[in-house]
Amino acid sequence: MVKSDEVNNPLIEVKDLTKSYRRANFETLVLRGISCEVSEGSFAFVVGPSGSGKSTLLYLLGGLDNPTSGNISIAGQQLTEMSASELDTLRRTKIGFIFQSFNLLRTMNCIDNVLAPFIPTGQAAAKREEAEALLARVGLGDRMHHRPSELSGGEQQRVAIARAILKKPKVILADEPTGELDTETGRRVFEILRDLNKTEGTTIITVTHDERYINSNDKVLRMQDGQFLTK
Amino acid sequence: MIRFALGNLFSRPLRTVLSVLGLAVAISGMVGLFSIAGGIDKVVSNTFEQIPGLLVQQQGAPIPLFSTLPANWRTELEAIPGVGVVDPEVFCRVNQLDGKIIINPPRFAIGMDVNARLELKRSLYRENLVDGRFFLPADVETNHCLVSREISTSISKGVGDEIDVNGTHFEIVGIYETGSMMLDVNILMDISTCRRLGRIDINTVGCFYVETDDSVDSKTLQKSIEDHFRGRDLQSWQPRPQFSGTGNAIANFARRLDKTIKAPSINSQPGGNQADEGRSDEVSSTVSAQSDRSPIEVRSADDWGKRIAEFSQDLNIFLTLMTAIGVSIATLSIVNTMLMSVTERTTEFGILRANGWSQSEIIRLMTLESSLIGLSGGLIGVSVGWFATVLINWVWPGRLQLHAGFTLLLFSLVFSIALGLVGGLYPAWRASRLSPMESIRRG
Ligand SMILES: Nc1ncnc2c1ncn2[C@@H]1O[C@H](COP(=O)(O)OP(=O)(O)OP(=O)(O)O)[C@@H](O)[C@H]1O
Ligand SMILES: [Mg+2]
Fold first, then answer.
1. How many CB atoms lie within 10 A of CB A126?
2. What angle do helix axes B13-49 and B2-10 make, rounded to 10 degrees?
3. What distance in Å separates residue B2's CA from the closest CA in chain A?
């Protein structure tokens, strides 16, 4: 359980972050000097118009790409100073990703998809029971051995959530996790995330277009043209 | 990881099966081709292990069959210290057997001095008698013969039956089986009978088979025999018309062998004179008067073995080239399969990377998949190749027996796995280099 004085510690610190893409001598500045803090145990939203750089920010936070300049630190560790294998470990054990779609490996059934992060480390077998319990928790106890193609979009997202939870991550990064779901299914997905945030204290950062999911005491980061509108 | 890799392969069954089959064809071809070399090796060792003595034959003749020597050299040979038994032999080709024209497999009539044969400590045909009896002194000048089991089966005649060899009647008194396809083509008879059959001059023999009396070792004896005849005038070997253009396997084999034997680098005749040896063909007509070279060659089973090893090395180079073609096509097909898979699975790699898979773990997954293709292709290829050699041997029992030994099979399998691995490396490297963010965005 998270103690109250820890809640305000910044888990994620972003400083003067820029990201630009070069394509044929033409440089696009996607993030133009972003700074923010997300404290441990908070539920944060990134909102903004299409193309404003929300996904880019989220991927940089998860170490899936390198920033052009600036710093990101997670739990006191600078991502830019970490080696490739440290970044891999971070992604395997500290950060859960949920994407808009295509979250799952289509050749694997649900349970193996949940265990995927731990296949190379040989821990998959040991975590199997836990994975089954998690699938039951997200309401897929009877779908363990189904392939992704045999699941609905909402069910697929819940498998991805179960996979993220299995890592016992510090933070879950979700890029429009309900973007392709109807309202009711989307609500179910957010219920699970809220529950996780409340019971485990997992920090959650979600990109969304649908502001109906935002609660009054959530942190909201509004982006436009690669910058935060307000702080 | 293996289960995951297998799952990925099975998700595209047709593609996987096709590249597995491509590899299987190449590998079975490889097993098939190299089993020919293996077969030759086996025949050769089978043949020469059973002939421990020395063969004295005409200089330059590729095998005794092509050699002619004066018959009266026998007494000289017998006088050389260390010589135990000298058995003169003559040969002629059998063109007609029981009224049928013989082309392939070839048959030869071998005339031997029955009494000398009986004195040999080790006598190949006598040791390998499977039915009837060996020659007795009483068989001299008679039309009694021994045939191999293979000949006996092919003409459905057994001991006591009459056969017709080039128009002459013979009675089969015994049946032998050496297991060597170079020896099991022979019809054995008394030397004078064979001379009549082949119209061979009474003053010539094909070659002498010499057994030591164990007082000197065979290397020394080999040398003293060659020294004894050094400087004698004898036309070096020229192809006899009887044997040219027959187009049978043995003759071709012999010609090929002849070239190998005459190559200077590998000729190691006792008695030196290395400079001349490479040119025996041109030298033969001019050198006769003053030559200090030996008109004969004395060969031991060891020499034969070495020479044939050289020959089969040549053959192996050829077979390697043939195999390389098939194998490179198969490898390209694996590369293609895996590259297609990489393009298709970009998002998947992004997901794996986002979940902590490192670049080298992606490489491991991809090369594991391609190695599994290699393994399956190898297993199928090796089994099919092996089965094919068994089948071919079974359908044509009298021909060259293909031999796919355990080493060849194991090597082919390992080779196939290695091919899969190598074929997967480049696609795997490509997959691992994809930026995880790009991979996911593309999905
Ligand atoms: N590889 C790239 N090369 C060039 N430009 C890129 C690349 N990836 C993204 N961009 C650009 O960066 C900008 C931000 O993209 P991003 O995906 O972060 O936006 P977003 O806020 O997530 O939009 P959406 O709400 O539509 O998902 C876009 O203008 C996009 O065209
Ligand atoms: Mg986006």
1. 11
2. 110
3. 10
CA quadruple A165, A166, A168, A170: dihedral positive or negative?
negative
Q: Return the closest-CA partner of residue B175 out of B147, B205, B211.
A: B147
A56 lines ligand 1 (CB under 6 A): yes
Secondary structure of residue B235 in the 3-state scheme = coil
Judge contact between B64 and B206, C-beta under 8 A.
Answer: yes
Name A205's bridge partners. A44, A173
User: pLDDT higher for B304 or B36?
Assistant: B36
Closest CA to B165 of B112, B102, B218: B102
Sign of CA dihedral B63, B68, B72, B73: negative
Q: Do B7 and A108 touch (CB under 8 A)?
A: yes
Give, for B403, the enclosing helix (H) or strand (E): none
Contacts of B437 (CB under 8 A, 6+ apart): A56, A59, A64, A65, B350
Judge: B358–A62 Cβ closer than 8 Å, yes or no: no
Would you say how long chain B is, in residues?
A: 443
For residue B412 the two structure tokens come to: 């082919």
Q: For residue A116, which residues of chain B lie inside 8 Å, CB to CB?
A: 351-352, 355
- What is the pLDDT at residue B399? 65
Would you give the end-to-end CA distance of chain B in angstroms?
A: 23
| Residue type (1 letter), B157 | K
Distance (Å) of CA B318 to CA B28, B32, B131, B213: 17, 14, 41, 43
Burial A163-179 (b: 16+ CB within 10 A, else e): bbbbbebbbbbbbbbbb
ipTM, 2 dp: 0.92
Q: What is the pLDDT of residue B274?
A: 38
**pTM for this structure?**
0.73
**Under 8 Å between Cβ of B430 and B342:** yes
DSSP character string of B156-193: T--TT-EEEETTEEEEEEEEE--S-TTTTTEEEEEHHH
User: B147 - beta bridge partners?
Assistant: B175, B187
Selection from A200-209, B179-188, B390-399 with the highest mean pLDDT: A200-209
Tokens of B112: 């031997």
List beta partners, residue A223.
Answer: A228
